[in-house]
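Tutorial sheet, problem 5. The two components below are modelled jointly, 227 residues in total.
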Amino acid sequence: GAVVSQHPSRVICKSGTSVKIECRSLDFQATTMFWYRQFPKKSLMLMATSNEGSKATYEQGVEKDKFLINHASLTLSTLTVTSAHPEDSSFYICSARATSGGTDTQYFGPGTRLTVL
Amino acid sequence: QKEVEQNSGPLSVPEGAIASLNCTYSDRGSQSFFWYRQYSGKSPELIMSIYSNGDKEDGRFTAQLNKASQYVSLLIRDSQPSDSATYLCAVKAAGNKLTFGGGTRVLVKP
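Model answer (structure tokens):
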């Protein structure tokens, strides 16, 4: 149980284009999902918290107009990187919050490696 | 600023030995503690969660929590080359967000 998928796993795009990344919880419902970014040899950096049916909460320094988040259902959140530039190239990872039996745990998707040319 | 600190390593361990990883956190209100394993180029995978003081064992892994000392550790017994990875300590205070440490890189040598 607690499987999270992400699509695509890898994407290469031209500078100025937009890229959409999907995050799905496959066997549980997640009212809260999280989007992280990880640069090589660095730890995870939380970008935003995605809440089903409401606006995402962005971390300080993350541009909400550049990184659009939509959490339209209890199993799907999307991150759209708008007008991507080479400095946006990174490993983007989502996680979904699972609460059951008194526990509260985040399970991670496999990640999406974005390369902007 | 809420912080989670880990030694970056690398922690070099002979195959079959015990690997001991440490993590300290600054927020006394922290309630939940997690260890994730991350292989190079992959996303984190949950290994252990611990919520109360003491030890919690799961197979070759043991997590230890001491809230008074704001300290959580992970022991890997009978270390295998496949355990070579970066281990991330994560802490959750009130709210939903996790705060991650920088990770400890573990190398298990055959």
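Marking note: Chain B has a mean pLDDT of 94. Full credit if you identified this.
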